[in-house]
Amino acid sequence: MQPWRVYALAGETLATLKQRVRESAIDNPRGETPEYPIYAPALKDPFNARRIACAEELYGILGVARENKLGRLMHFARNFDFYGAPVGLILAMDRSMERGQFADLGLYLAHVMLLAQERGLATCAQAAWAGMNKTVHAVLDIPETELIFCGVSLGYADPDATINALEMAREPLSVTTEMRGFEDWNTPA
After folding, report:
1. Residues near 104 by Cβ (< 8 Å), separated by ≥ 6?
2. Neighbours of 7 (CB within 10 A)
3. By CB distance 3.0 to 4.6 Å, which of 28, 75, 99, 128 could disulfide with 79?
4. Which residues of the chain have pLDDT under 70?
5. Cα–Cα distance between 142 and 148 in angstroms, integer?
6. Cα–Cα distances in angstroms (integers) from residue 80 to residues 75, 86, 94, 152, in the given order
7. Which is it for the CA torsion 59, 22, 26, 148, positive or negative?
């Protein structure tokens, strides 16, 4: 079905979107009403614990203390500058789509990110853009029939940037994967 619609932005178009989002952020520092819930309303453990650990690792490497709400908000706001990348992508899809098409769009996004990496480019997928959808719709003249799924920063990684040294902790394979029926499976020698 290819339910996605991609808006690739650079130059003046990208600059205009970033400027308008900065203006909107004055009244909406945490974003506008999101297009969809980014997290489940009552996120249970271990998922909530993993989300919190991720945030602690991120802000820890940046030197932003937990109680420094302004510092955390300032880092969050960098989403809307596409982290300084020269290209921003906005991914959208028709509002009539269901959960399966969210999965399709996620698979497409993963492939775009892998292809970019193969070509020496860095990416950062940003669900935060779903929270600035009103401004995105208005600036880019995207029909209201399209849901803003996410943004993606696209450019070259700065190897000296502190944040690029961050390697998020991951659960071991034994926690996230059950291997069934492999007991008698022989791999070719």
Report:
1. 1, 2, 3, 4
2. 18
3. 128
4. 189
5. 9
6. 10, 13, 23, 10
7. negative
Structure token pair of residue 65:
């203390």
- Which residue shows structure tokens 């203390």? 65
Nearest C-alpha neighbor of 124 from the set 153, 155, 88, 94: 153
| Pairing of β 87-94 and β 4-9 | antiparallel
Angle at 84 between CA 73 and CA 153, to 5 degrees: 90
Per DSSP, the three-state class of 184 is coil
Question: Residue 189: what pLDDT?
Answer: 63
Q: Which long-range contacts (CB under 8 A, 24 or more apart) does 160-164 make?
A: 162/61, 162/62, 162/63, 163/58, 163/61, 163/62
CA distances from 112 to 77, 89, 117 (A): 24, 11, 9
In this predicted structure, what is the pLDDT of residue 163? 86
Contact present, 124 and 164 (Cβ < 8 Å): no
Residue 42 pLDDT: 92
CA angle 52, 127, 43 (to 5 degrees): 40
Quote the CA–CA distance of 189 and 182 in Å, as a whole number.
16
Residue 180 CA to residue 178 CA, distance in Å, equals 6
Which residues are CB-neighbours of 71 under 8 A, at least 6 positions away? Answer: 59, 62, 64, 65
